[in-house]
Structure prediction request, 205 residues.
Amino acid sequence: MTLTPVQQRTVREIVSLLMQRPITEAIAMQVAQCEGFKHLEIANGNWALDEQDPYMTGEEHAWIEALILHALIGWALANQAGRVYPGDMDFVLEGTPDHIHIKRQPDVAYVSNARVQATSGYYYGAPDLVVEIVSPSQSRPEMVQKANEYLRYGSRQVWLVFPNRREIEVHTAEGLPTVYAAGQTLPGSDLLPGFALNVAAVFES
Prediction:
């Protein structure tokens, strides 16, 4: 397929942006405006150029994300506890606006009022709670590694949601994860006091 002059110029601009180092917030935001590059993460100061998983934009993933968002937002508003963010929120776990080393986009994130950063740019720091919905192409070991990364940078809980098993694993820095299956209720503990999540309801079809 032959590209038009406009398409060729667009490709050159994207390639130029992707090659620039260090990756700054300004560069990352420009890249995110390019079609197909919105959800790129950054690891070790380089773009995480994994092929986009179709599941990540699929109906099942979107519905599970919406249900968890709904539950957390309802609790956060009722308790004036903090803010809940969908999957297009960028969290810089390590770095500065002039040199981003690690940038992640969790599917759902919660930040308590004491740690909210009112900004039009990226959030610098880890969310208090991270929710990652595991796709069929993602292995449990790689997702546990990602959960441990969030915990290492200050997250207090990471929920790994497994639609194929209808289970949610709650990871903390204290030890082994706790698994909640359909028919059980996931408690908010001291992070989300008074919160409770019906696990079966998350996997409604």
